[in-house]
Amino acid sequence: MNAIAPGTTRSEMIAGWFAANPDIEKELHRATPQQRTAEPVEIAEAAVWLCGDRASFVTGANLVVDGGFTIIRRPVLRRVGW
User: What is the value of pTM for the model shown?
Assistant: First the structure.
């Protein structure tokens, strides 16, 4: 079994959260090496890859698809109140 751990991904829910809290969006983007929110297709492409033959020897993995956010997430999450 494999898993995907997505980062902040553009959706209606996230758009509403960012609209209500513009500072959080800025902080998250600043704290992500890619400096942006993922598009849903980027997460879907990771899932498709895991299902394909090129990932046939990948077992028991957690594929982090978050633009590098987990490298520095703890200080940022504290600043935004998580």
Answer: 0.81
